[in-house]
Amino acid sequence: MDLSAISEELAEIEGQINDIFRALSNGFQKLEKIKDPNRRSRQLEELTDKMRECKRLIKGFEKVMKEEESRNTHDNNKKLNEKKQSMIKELNSFVALKKQHASSLENKRVDLFDGLGVGDGVGDENVMLASTMTNQQLMDTGHQMMDETDQAIERSKKVVEDTVNVGAETAAALKAQTEQMSRIVNELDSIHFSIKKASQLVKEIGRSVATDRCIMAMLFLIVIGVVAIIIVKLVNPHNKDIRDIPGLAPPVSRKLLWDLSDR
What we know:
Layout: H1 8-33, H2 37-67, H3 74-104, H4 124-128, H5 135-235, H6 254-262
């Protein structure tokens, strides 16, 4: 098809699809030469990814084609439609090759290409009979395979989103718990410091009380002594043992004082 007869956007998409078709052709030729089952499986997975990308591009080609349908001539729209059907048919042929190689490897895993319709009713029968199908049947089959692939991709995206959300919620919960533990540790440190200060204060109060008790005891003994002396003096005023204590000696008679002054 003459690329000058279509828009630049359609020409670019068609070029990308053709590049993928060439890569798929070379990839399947390379796959025939690989003997190691593990390498063959990895190569088959890479080819499957390329087919998925090709399916996405074909769908984009169809979308742009419909948008430009009103601006194109009838002949150009017909050629574009034939080109799209040809691309779908070629993609289905690669799907059939992929299925054959997967069967030869006896791969028991879930077929990675289920999203393109290989396996669940749209598989071998429709692919192998693609050459006998009408254009409308080819279009319907291609649409069905692309829709199924979109659904599979959306399910995968949903699983990834759910996983990310669970991870975010778990991280938030762990962060909150970590902050709570940090606050608890700080509160415990504050309580320990308060207890230490209270213990020191109690010791200081105890020492102060002990000192005050000693002073009170000494004052009490002094008062007891003074009271005892006073009592003894009152009871026995001629006691010579306490006569020399200031303030407690009996008054000296005036006569005695004159006698002492005459001498």
